[in-house]
Each structure stands twice: as C-alpha cells, then as structure tokens.
Amino acid sequence: MGLFNIIGSKTVKTHEQQKAEEPVVTKEYKFDPTIELERQLGEQIYNALQGSIVEEVLRQIRTSSSDAYWRSNMEGHSLKVEKELLSDFYDLCHEVKDKLGYTAKVDFYITGDSSVNAFSVASEDENEPNIVNINSGLFDLMTRDELKFVIGHELGHLINKDTQLTRLIHFVFPPETAAPVTLQYKIRLHEQLAELVADRYGYIATEDLGVCVTAFFKMASGLDLAKMNVSIDALIADNNKRLSYFLNDKGMSRASHPVNPIRVQALNLFATVKSQAELKKGMEELISILLKVGDSEQDEHTARFIASAGIIVAYGDDGIKKEEIDRIVAELASLKIFPRKFLDEIINGDVVKTFNESVENLLKINPGMREGMLRYMIDIVMTDQVISKEEIELLYNFGESVGLSKIEVANAIAEAIQQNYIPSLDSIV
Fold first, then answer.
1. Which own/partner contact pairs does 119-126 have at CB distance under 8 Å and 24+ positions apart?
2. pLDDT in tens, 304-348
3. What angle do CA 131, 135, 139 make, to 5 degrees?
4. Domain encompassing residue 75
5. Which of 157, 212, 213, 326 could form a disulfide with 162 if both were Cys (CB 3.0 to 4.6 A apart)?
6. One domain for residues 270 and 338
7. Is pLDDT above 50 for 7?
C-alpha cells in the first residue's frame, strides 16, 4: 500500500458527525431541546481545538483513564443506587432515563455532601457506564418530582455530550494555561447555553413548570419551601423582577451557569410557547444578556473605536491585510464574544462616521484615553511591517484632532518603532 493510500485511509470526523454516530436517545420531543447557538459554539470550539485529532492522539497514548479515577472515587466514597438498596430512588432514576429515551448505561450515586449540587461524568470507554451523582444535601432538600428535574438535567448533559467537550478543553488548556480571550468568552457562553439545554431535559422529565421553579429556588436559597407559605405565582413574579435587572443592561452573567432569573424564564418559554419559532424568538432576548462582555457605555464606544480606527489605519497604505484584520479582531476579543462579526458590521456601515463618533464619545468620558487611542493606531500601522507616508500623516492628523502636538505623536511613533518594528522579509530580500 502506498503512502498516500495509508494517509487517505483514515477519515477524520467533525464533532457533530461523532455525536450523530452515537445514537443514545430514542425519543422525539414536542420541541427540539437543543439551542442552535450552543450547537454552533460547540462545533467551533471543538474544531478550534482540533478535537478529532487530539482525541485520536489521546486514544493512542492514554495509559490510564479518568474513568478509573471517577469509578474508584464513586465506588469508594459514595453510595451506589442499586435496586436492592434504594429501590424507590433506583426506579425514579430509571423512570427519568426511560422518559428521555436515553439508552446509554448510567450508574447513579449519592454522595455525603451538604452542598446542594449534582453532576454527571461521561465515560471515556463506551463499555463503561456514565455517572450521575446527587449530593445528599440536594437529595434531602428536593421532593420526588424535583429530583426528577435534577436527574433529567444531568442526563441532559450526557445526551448533549457537554462533558466530552469540557474534557477536551481542560486537556488543551490545563489549569496553568489560559485560553485566548476570545475563546474564553465562547467557552463561557457555550457552558451557559448548555445549562439551558440541560434544564429543558429536566423539564421534559417532569413536564411540570412549577416543580422546576421550586427546584431552582431551593438550589438558590438552600431553603425547604414546604416549610413556608410561598406560591409558584409569587416565585414567578419575583423572578420577573430580578430578570428585569439583567434585561435593563444593569447586570451580566459571567459564571459557567446562567443566573436563575434567566434559567427560570428560559424554561417558562420552553414550557408555554406554541411553536419552535416562538421559542427561538423568545430566547433571543435572554441570550442577549449572555452575549454581553463589556458592561459600560465606555466599553461599547471603545469597541467601535477599535474597529473603525483599525480599518481606517489599515487602509492607509495599499489596502487591508490579513494580519491587520487579525490584530483588530484580537483587540475586539476582550469586548465582544463574536469580534469578527462585529468588525464586519462596522465595515459594512459608515466607518468614518463611526470613528468620529467613538472618538468624540470616548474623549467626553475620559480625555486621558487619547494617548492610548494613538498607541493603538500606531500598533495597527506596525502590524503589516510596512510604514507608509500616508499612515504617518494620518497619525499626525489624528493627534492634532485630539489635542496632541506633532512632537508628541512623533515621540509615540519613534517609541513604537524601537519596541515593535521588525522589517518584513520581503523588504530585506
């Protein structure tokens, strides 16, 4: 067999193809529990991390599996839910599993832990059962129906294959290694959306919105609501008040889990809307909260300046280059989850108007930003390793417009040349 035949004999599959080839769900639901943006982000992250390649390499070199760690930890320190020991809860767990149409093997455990929490772990070995754990603190607090919601949620993570993607992320970026900022934001958004998807499976397990709502509030407060005269209507009304705080641009959701007001309203939509299109429309407002990275007016003006100034400077010589685009996008990544999409929106608009307005607004907010704005524009000039007279003239004009003298601009350019300028190979050769 020739070399090219050997190379071509192995087909590398995408994340979605791999998921499709592992049919573990045999049930159709009223509405698709998945969220399209979550699916897209999962695919993007997987491809960015070369998931199919990395996983194949790991399969070849792995001498010990995390399966062994989890199995020994659960078997040694937790109570396995067996038919002979916990008959009622065993039946409940498998009732939920059957209702979701989940056919893969799962071992259920209860761990002596006062924290109100649960988790799932996907097995790396297809011959080994997956794991769902319920902490005793949560078990004691929840009613039977609320436990169905929790178990459905954890099985939802397994159905959606969230654990596998998390495992890949943690391998490529171990604790001591930070992922690029733009990828960090996408990972966080994916985690949050994956929680909303898992919540939907929890609801499907119960088909009772009130049960889901009380479960959320118990997990948030640690209180047994049965001991208090609290109605579902009162809980929903309170949730709506808290949700308005986030909808009015006063709050952000930065954790791996969305805030409860978002989760409750997302489930309310899933349970009450009449069509998938209506569900999608209702979710857009909630997802807009999760999309926020910058939390101030200044952040938005800064993003618009970075995009417009970068474009104007990059076009100052013989046209914009890939490395200049990459540099602009990298700067935007700290302010926008989808920086390239935002940049394209600016490019397709009135770039000069956006630039002038962003400069004016930023100087009103903080006049001291003018030096930083100039340095950013100089950095873009240096990015393509070519400095043109047109670009230098543009920098002088900008400096003059914001109250910087020609000498101040020249000093900033000179400093940047000494620190950052590297002649291109083309110019040398």
1. 119/154, 120/154, 120/155, 120/157, 120/158, 120/163, 121/70, 121/163, 122/158, 122/161, 122/163, 122/164, 122/167, 123/67, 124/65, 124/66, 124/67, 124/167, 125/65, 125/67
2. 999 999 999 888 666 778 888 998 998 888 888 888 999 999 999
3. 110
4. 15-291
5. 157
6. no
7. no
Are 311 and 398 contained in the same domain? yes
Shared-domain flag, residues 280 and 354: no
Q: Look up residue 199 and give its amino acid.
A: D
Nearest to 355 by CA among 331, 373, 335, 378: 373
pTM over 0.70: yes
Domain count, the chain: 2
Q: Are residues 348 and 215 in the same domain?
A: no
Domain endpoint, select from 291, 320, 337 = 291
Q: Which two tokens stand for residue 321?
A: 């280059």
On whether both 36 and 131 belong to a single domain, the answer is: yes
CB-CB contact of 253 with 262 (8 Å): yes
Residue with tokens 């988790």: 119
Instruction: Provide the edge-to-edge strand list for the sheet that holds 106-111.
Output: 78-80, 106-111, 130-135, 118-121
Q: Is pLDDT of 296 > 80? A: no
Single residue among 254, 276, 291 that ends a domain in this structure = 291
pLDDT > 70: what percent of the chain?
A: 86
